[in-house]
């Protein structure tokens, strides 16, 4: 695990806010709040759909004509940027051309972005068969954490108050030290209450095996925060059994969490369409923002890890 990565992602200095201009004020409220926490600069990005692009020949790249539609988009971005500037946040409105799931990852790589904030919708059924949302595409493709503002995210979580509660839900797979480092640094710098949660899969275990698995999971959770004395408020370590998404949402709601952090395994198309992905369910139903660490980050970041104990039951997304 590289300390520089933990510092960047727990205390971002450049935040990209991806907007389609229709999400409403909650996205902007939460983006302003997070930018204030780390005194970050904001890149406000809108990607113009290919339907607005014109290509004269097969040899020339598409371009954006100076049409009334483009001028309206630019004016709306400038208007939103003023919301950030009124709060003392440097904000640069940016228009990209193409598909959001392609242009935003490319721009993130070239712009030293530390976090991306995006809203997501609650599509289901046939709508999900037509394609995953931009937020889901970004989770899979980006090499920086993605903060999801779901349709049920409460505006109160973006009030001008300290970050009070941080919940890390971890499967205790090999990426957990990275996730714990980010969550711990975030909670420590904001003097927040840090809660680490693991949901056991005890199917097929005897009572004795279940007890051993609970004890092992508790020890591994505690080991993820070696410097607990650095936290003004002692961390909480929870081990539960049951449906992972249900338990994560229950704990986030019962403890009035201000932020949930999740690791995202590689989701299957079937899990996205059938709405069985833990990450998707939590992002859609959570009343607070959800930061997701993608498989790309987990694979490309150097970090220390312990061997995974085969007797532990792990959450599957």
Tell me what the structure shows.
Helix content is 39%, strand content 18%. The chain has helices spanning 3-10, 25-38, 68-86, 100-110, 126-129, 134-141, 176-189, 207-223, 244-254, 269-273, 278-285, 295-300, and strands at 14-18, 41-48, 91-97, 115-119, 146-149, 165-169, 193-200, 236-241, 259-263, 290-293. The protein is globular, with a radius of gyration of 20 Å. It is built from twelve helices and ten strands. It is an alpha/beta fold and 317 residues long. α7 (176-189) links the parallel β6 (165-169) and β7 (193-200). It has two domains: 3-149, Rossmann fold (3-Layer(aba) Sandwich); 156-300, Rossmann fold, CATH 3.40.50.620. The two termini are 23 Å apart. Strands 3-2-1-4-5-10-9-6-7-8 form a ten-stranded mixed sheet, with helices on both faces.
